[in-house]
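Dear colleagues,

I hope this message finds you well. In preparation for our joint manuscript, I am sending the Phosphocarrier protein HPr (Clostridium oryzae) sequence together with its predicted structure, so that both groups work from identical material. I would be grateful if you could confirm receipt.
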Amino acid sequence: MEKKVSIINESGLHIRPASNFVKVASKYKSNIEIIYGNSKINGKSIMGIMSLGVTKGNEIIISAKGEDEEKALNELVELVENGFGE
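The corresponding structure tokens are as follows:
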């Protein structure tokens, strides 16, 4: 399963939102990936997320594959759509 979402928070995917994303993604057994441009990274890797350089207004695709993929994808999409609580 995957879903495209836009980054709405002012500072993009910097350290705090990236760590929030990893914290939520790590709760799930599913394989979580973020696809941005030509890059596909592990959604449970803070260094991977930071290396993407995603800024406000950019779109990313969140991909989840595994036994709890639907629940994981829904929570991660909600996190991004709510601006990571910032």
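For the figure legend, we might mention the following. Residues 2-85 form a domain with the Histidine-containing Protein; Chain: A; fold (CATH 3.30.1340.10). Helices lie at 15-25, 46-52, 69-81.

With kind regards,
E.M.
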